[in-house]
Amino acid sequence: MAEPALKLDKLVKRFGTHAAVDGIDLAVAPGEFVTLLGPSGCGKTTTLNLIAGFLAPDGGHIQLGGRMVENLPPFQRDLGMVFQDYALFPHMTVADNVAFGLKMRKVAKGEISARVAEALALVKLDGFGARRPNQLSGGQRQRVALARALVIRPTMLLLDEPLSNLDLKLREEMRTEISSLQRRLGIATVFVTHDQGEALTMSDRIAVMRDGMIEQIGAPAEIYERPATRFVAGFIGSINMVPAKVDAIEGGAVRLATPAGPARARIDGVSAGAGVTLTVRPERLKLGPGAPADAVAWQARVERVVYTGARLEVQLALADGSSAMAEATNDGSTRFTAGQTTTLWFRPEDAWVIRESA
Amino acid sequence: MIVSSARPRPIVPFLLVALPAAFLLVFFVIPTAFLLSASFIESDGVIMTGVWTTQNYADLLSRPLYQQAILRTFGIGIAVGVVVIVLSYPLAYFLVRTTSPWRGFLIALSLSPLLASVIVRTYGWWVILNREGAINSGLLALGIIDQPLALLPSSMAITIGLSHALLPYGVLTIMASLNGLNPNVERAAMSLGAGRVRTFLTVTLPLTWPGIVGGFLLAFAIAISAYATPAILGGPGTQVMATLIRSFMVQALDWALGSAMGAILLISSIALLLLTSALGGRRA
Amino acid sequence: MNKGPWTLLKVTVAVIYLFILGPILITAAVAFNGTNRSFFPPRGFSLRWWGEAFAPQWVQPLMFSLELAALTAVIATAIGVPLAFAFQRYDFPGKTIVRTITLGPLILPTLVTGIALLQFLTVIGLGRWLGYWALLIGHVIICLPFSVRTIAISLQAMPGSVEQAAANLGAGPLSVLRYVTFPIIMPGIFAGMAFAFIHSFTDINMSLFIAKPGQRPVTVAIMSFLDFGFAPTLAALSILSLLIPLVLIAVLGRFVGIGNFLYQEQGRG
Ligand SMILES: Nc1ncnc2c1ncn2[C@@H]1O[C@H](COP(=O)(O)OP(=O)(O)OP(=O)(O)O)[C@@H](O)[C@H]1O
Ligand SMILES: [Mg+2]
Asked: What is the CATH number of the domain that holds C164?
């Protein structure tokens, strides 16, 4: 593989005694779109600020295209950054905002105007050059910020929650727009968000962060379907988690004892007696008859049915009294009523075992 | 604050503040400290003998003329604080709550006296209150009185003049505290059945109490050290600390008493400041 | 909703505005008296007093005040900018102390600051500085808090990310200051300068002690003339000296957009 566009090596940043970034390793391949996803305060912005050079690391290394940059000031790092509040220069026109980076690089005047026009066209803002930032809508500001970051042809793009100030519809529109622009330009990108929807739809890989560390990194499907920890499982989508104990190992699968009943699932490398967590996504839980022979089937009582339009969320009580949730397509074929007792089942390959006890 | 370079440069702030700080040290801090110590030194006119004494304070606090001036100063300060709050609260409340398109103009108008020297503002009161002034000629013309009233010089006139001069400070302080009040708190009270007046008395007023206290103390602090208004609207019988300081320092050339009186003013102001920030701290 | 209390409030507010503006309007009216006494309502009509206000006796202190206030404003801004940057952008040992002594003159009685300066200059043998130089020093001290706070507020109001964005786009620290920071805080700098000017121009408590004949601001000149009576000339002069800050604010408000600062800055008083 070519030299990674960005490589973080045991990066640490402390504020006082609190480590906001606590030993992060991350490599972003050229052209790759990596998302840092995590709850508020987990250190996403701090990581981005370290990469951009606004903060100096207390430990570890940062490489951009194979070059160590920890000691380079931000203005020599050649990164395009889009800030959460866009940080447009209020005293300059849109065109001057976009031209700023080129002026700092002493690009020739004629070339500047050509490249500014090109960048504005790229973000579909032709003709807006003479406006001031305060004469633009939120979505337009966001595009100016993007154009301003891209026009300098940076080695990579850093985006700090660029969509969080937009309303829902615009946010979804900009999602697609940013991803397709990024793919077209083939520019390596680190994108920060706490919105799992954005992370799942836009990224090549997602790094889930918690307390200054990367908890798991992988493709969206891997993060969603094979979460490494209970935290990752719980942070992305909804999930049923049942504490379990490994009873016996049978080939590629294990037999588990859970308070809700016995279960089987696929997992390697655990020994009998280990405490683990059995997880099943609600959309993989089925209710009623029709379970194949190898399915895990438990008794459950319907507590409540929540109608969400296209889907029904069925809240259940398991044998031990703990609760679970199943999600069914609202195709008109299924009817559940609160209080009814039913069979809950899932195929072992739809379950995922996390090597952490509850 | 994130600095714009990866490396900290601790020398920069010192370069920025060194010169201004030295200037303030020489011409503000040292003179003020000097004044405080001079108030404990015996002096003959403007020449200090260098002998430590508390006689200056004893003189100030024992002679009836000075005693009365000190009491009058604080009395006027309290009265001014009360008048400023009573007048500025309704005005501030109106300015914060009104939806009138003139709001900006009305705010500017209520603060505009700050642009005028206190002399300009006091002059108008002299015109209104003197023997041949607007009030006396009005009352005489209406036949309510047949002899002009002696409205000047008086502590009352000084109080009115100072209240007028300091009103903008009250308006600003109370507006700030009303602005900090979430309007939904008032709406909640009203939705629970309290009328406008009840809501005001039970919710708004208590929640803006810190602003009221702050405005009062600010007006009080400025009033006790004001010179021009007492000098114009008062007379020999209504001396206050500021006018006495002026005569000690410039006419009688008794710098020892002037320093001591100045020190009393200074310490009162610092005490008020500490009181204000203690009350403000409780609010936060 | 019950509108009664609101109407009552509006009436009260109207009366309060009358109280605020009355004395100033009355002073203006008095300056048109036909007689040489300050009657209100004015008796007769004459522009004589306005003419007299332009006699050298008054133009000289007026010009002196203008010059003093302008110079004070420039110096207070020149040292206020670095102070505001230091307070807003850096942590350094002694910061609290330096900030306290910078803002102190705002809170301590100006009169006391004035007599302290008078006494100090006299005792160290710089009594000959009384008048122009002492006034300049004293006015810079009492006006500095206005420029420092106004500039600090505009620095604080500027999102830090704007400077980061500039650095990220390749601007070195000096370019960031020149192309981004200064242009954005320029209205704040001008507003601070205007406040310093107005505070100096309207001051009496400091000037009272350290002015000397021939080097007196207009407020001190009016004050000492009041001892001889309240001539309508003084009313005219008062109004003239009120117009100067008013014009300044109007001009600056128009060209630099400092309008918001008047409220913000004073709001923290
Ligand atoms: N300048 C600072 N000084 C002290 N602590 C800081 C500073 N900046 C961030 N922190 C702390 O570091 C931690 C990580 O902050 P960071 O801004 O990186 O979080 P984040 O993941 O971006 O959160 P959000 O999603 O809310 O933006 C937080 O606990 C925060 O309080
Ligand atoms: Mg963040």
From this structure: 1.10.3720.10
